DNA sequence: TACATGTGTTATAAAATACTTACATATGAT
DNA sequence: ATCATATGTAAGTATTTTATAACACATGTA
């Protein structure tokens, strides 16, 4: 169960989830851990793009990764889902909005 | 309780929620309905910008609006929160991802 | 009449996000 | 050696989102 410490954390998760490719990534990973190149093929997107999306998911703590050696002897970076489960309602948004910052990113 | 008919609907809601200004708007409206100009002052943002955000929230069915005549005799557009409450987890994302489209917007 | 307060829109600029192309490195198999 | 597969990243482009500025019109009040 995801617990949000503040509004910025909530926003980070919502931003990570507000993209169709990233939802697809989560859907695939919900069937089991997978390594980057395989994921890219399965989703039909380029590896650099996949990296970008995985990075956002990782920053929001929705996925995590481990390096592993494949049977072939090659290194592979495996991604897996963290526990994604939370309730969202107006009360929560109201409470967390006090610790939500409105800022430029760069 | 929000029920998602398909992945695109889920995404629409997540996109609407993935912006700090819009979360603030929801937070303010959770304390009661309010009209646009008042909202803009309270949030410290311009009316055209507020319109943009309200439009996204309305498209996602998170808020709705009514025209009303103020005591002064002027027309005012009141916005109010719809019921915002849902659970999100990997199972739901997995199921809805099948009806989620990856597309350009314009 | 001029001012303050509403709604509503268009055009434009700025910032952030998404995506592509090209490259570098490493391992094992043919 | 060359091919196929893996990671990783830099740089440039395209698209989308966010924000601003400038209008239009209407009502009530000083």
From TrEMBL, chains A, B:
UniProt GO MF annotations: DNA binding; DNA-binding transcription factor activity
HTH arsR-type domain ranges (all copies): 2-101
Q: Which InterPro entries match?
A: ArsR-like_HTH, HTH_ArsR_DNA-bd_dom, WH-like_DNA-bd_sf, WH_DNA-bd_sf
Sorted alphabetically, the keyword list is: DNA-binding
Q: What is this protein called?
A: Winged helix-turn-helix transcriptional regulator
Q: Which organism is it from?
A: Psychrobacillus lasiicapitis
């Amino acid at each position: 169960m995801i617990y949000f410490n503040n509004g910025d954390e909530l926003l980070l998760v919502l931003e990570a989830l507000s993209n169709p490719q990233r939802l697809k990534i989560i859907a695939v990973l919900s069937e089991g851990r997978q390594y980057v190149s395989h994921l890219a093929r399965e989703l039909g997107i380029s590896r650099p793009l996949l990296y970008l999306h995985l990075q956002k998911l990782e920053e929001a703590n929705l996925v995590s990764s481990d390096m592993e050696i494949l049977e072939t002897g090659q290194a592979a970076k495996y991604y897996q889902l963290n526990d994604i489960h939370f309730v969202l309602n107006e009360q929560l948004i109201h409470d967390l909005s006090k610790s939500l910052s409105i800022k430029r990113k760069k």
